[in-house]
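Need a sequence for this fold. Nothing fancy.
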């Protein structure tokens, strides 16, 4: 019953978030929508911002489980595409609120492990220093978050699919070139 109630609260919140900005959503609206008491809401969440954090952390866990099975960054981007398109209004409402930093932290955290897993997977057979792997993942994570934030600020839904494909191709090629240069420098030192 507890999981059902928590899911009902989250579903009600996401429904409301797709209709209005975060600042205009109240606990009263959430509890009315999912037909629970105020005490029940506060049993699960301290406030709406705690609910946002929980929602983001849950989505990060789902994303990381999914991306562990993909073979390329392009595959990973395809997996993320539906989530972004289906939740664009809700994400935009959070982005346009005073809680923009929560969304940015979510994107950075979600992509942090995803990019690192991808870089490690691409070069699992090559001995590359951990510092370089982390640098590559971090560099491309920042680029991708920048593009996603810009996409949220723009109104062109159709561009996202093309944008993610272009980013993934550029990222994969950039990583390969960087690794080749590292290996070349390493061979020259020997």
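Here you go.
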């Amino acid at each position: 019953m507890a999981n059902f109630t928590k899911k009902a609260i989250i579903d009600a919140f996401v429904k409301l978030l797709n209709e209005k900005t975060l600042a205009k959503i109240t606990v009263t609206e959430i509890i009315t929508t999912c037909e629970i008491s105020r005490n029940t809401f506060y049993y699960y969440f301290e406030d709406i911002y705690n609910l946002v954090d929980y929602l983001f952390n849950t989505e990060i866990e789902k994303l990381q489980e999914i991306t562990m099975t993909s073979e390329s960054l392009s595959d990973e981007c395809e997996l993320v595409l539906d989530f972004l398109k289906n939740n664009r209004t809700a994400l935009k409402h959070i982005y346009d609120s005073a809680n923009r930093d929560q969304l940015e932290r979510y994107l950075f955290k979600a992509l942090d492990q995803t990019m690192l897993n991808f870089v490690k997977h691409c070069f699992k057979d090559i001995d590359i220093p951990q510092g370089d792997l982390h640098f590559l993942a971090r560099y491309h994570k920042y680029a991708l978050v920048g593009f996603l934030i810009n996409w949220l600020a723009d109104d062109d839904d159709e561009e996202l699919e093309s944008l993610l494909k272009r980013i993934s191709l550029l990222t994969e090629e950039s990583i390969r070139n960087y690794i080749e240069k590292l290996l070349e420098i390493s061979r020259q030192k020997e």
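For context: The mean pLDDT is 81.
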